[in-house]
Amino acid sequence: MPDFHHVDVLPLGPDATAYRRLDLPPGEVIRAAGRTFLEIDPAVLTALVRESVHDIQHYLRPSHLAQLRAIVDDPEASPNDRFVATDLLRNACVSAGGVLPMCQDTGTAIVAFLDRTLRSLGTSACPPYHLAVVVGGMSAEYTLKVAKLASARYLDTLPSQGSELGHAFRDHDLEKQVLEMTAQFGIGAQFGGKYFCHDVRVVRLPRHGASLPVGIAVSCSADRQAKAKITPEGVFLEQLERDPAQYLPEVTGEGLSDEVVRVDLNRPMAEIRAQLSALPVKTRLSLSGPLVVARDIAHAKIAERLDAGEPMPGYLRDHPVYYAGPAKTPEGYASGSFGPTTAGRMDSYVAQFQAAGGSLVMLAKGNRSRQVTDSCRDHGGFYLGSIGGPAARLAQDCIRKVEVLEYPELGMEAVWKIEVEDFPAFVVVDDKGNDFFAGVSEPTLQIGFRRS
User: Fold this and answer.
1) In angstroms, rounded to a whole number, what is the distance separating the alpha carbons of residues 418 and 289?
2) pLDDT tens digits along 10-32
3) Are strands 19-22 and 361-364 parallel, antiparallel or unpaired?
4) Taking Cα atoms as reference points, which of 15, 8, 258, 55 lies closest to residue 154?
5) CA–CA separation, 73 vs 90, rounded Å?
6) Does 260-438 carry CATH code 3.20.130.10?
7) Over the stretch 296-312, which tens digit does the pLDDT of each residue have?
8) Cα(71)–Cα(183) distance, rounded to whole angstroms?
9) Fewer CB atoms inside 10 A, N or C side of the chain?
10) Where are the domains of the chain?
11) How buried is residue 327: exposed, middle or buried, by Cβ count under 10 Å (0-12/13-18/19+)?
12) Degrees, nearest 5: CA angle 432-348-113
């Protein structure tokens, strides 16, 4: 009979995280039944969670900020890459003031399989991403759990080699291959370039011989992650960066000032569409004027009215529609954090709405389905991409006025009207059926999985 050996599946190395000590009582060491336990007051856990949530709403890891700055400094980065990275750094500076959270949307996505899946994910979860790939696992559920931990950089200290005992390890060779694959997508930091990912982590797990689950997780540009620990010595929370301004480049505009087309939204919709029709996809825009804001529930209610034979509301015929919902407005501000939500959830409404004369110019984040591209071609519509992530900067610098138009009982899901100034956007889908993401949706590089 073979000897029994126990090994941790996730054998982590020394923790080099920089922590700050919180003013909370430490755990109390208790010994019972020959074992040692750490008893923690539930109130301490509550206070730790409250402090953690505050920090990850407003601050980022220094390593993440350094990676954004590296995009700005990279001569091979596209102008759109550099523009997005700079805007995310500016957003971090606004958020670090502790008033406006950096983003009011979700922060991590978990999906499942590689090249084609990552292309289909596109910008819906707000790149540049921290990408984690897990190959193997004792169950699909465990694979996805490990993918989540890896995307938060919790497993960075795993060993680089496996063993006959079957513990996890990082596959650095495959990490390099996958990072190169994503750089060749052409998607970049949302609107063209090479920075679809900051970095890649590939973790290999032991598995059953007849099963090979593969999990993928991405942490988005908001990257709300922090470690915490409670020991007999105290309660500690990862030290995040409170002075992100040091990562901003000098304000010269060099390398960022690719032609920007200003669009006056105060004009009739026909004039706005005529201007957009002359622009190629990927064109960077600066929007000023009124936008109507509507998302999931408002779209469902308006669709019900159309189905009942009612006309399209005038506000969707006369103004571009922004898929979003505001966070709570702090005192002294026109708006709370007000970044875009993922456009794909509204795809099923587009053809019906455009046929009725509405939603002819849409603004949100992420890629759209073929049915949206076809509808824009058939009805003369446009989809403009907004940068996913910098919700705090949009609130402070771009949104001047917010008012409820309809359905106030829906709270943040109400229909709003906002006035914007120099709101950044890109042409993603035009009225001729061109779609920026269509050219970057097919696999071009094969990845070889190393046998260990």
Assistant:
1) 8
2) 999 999 999 999 999 998 999 99
3) unpaired
4) 15
5) 15
6) yes
7) 999 999 999 999 999 99
8) 12
9) N
10) 19-247, 260-438
11) buried
12) 90
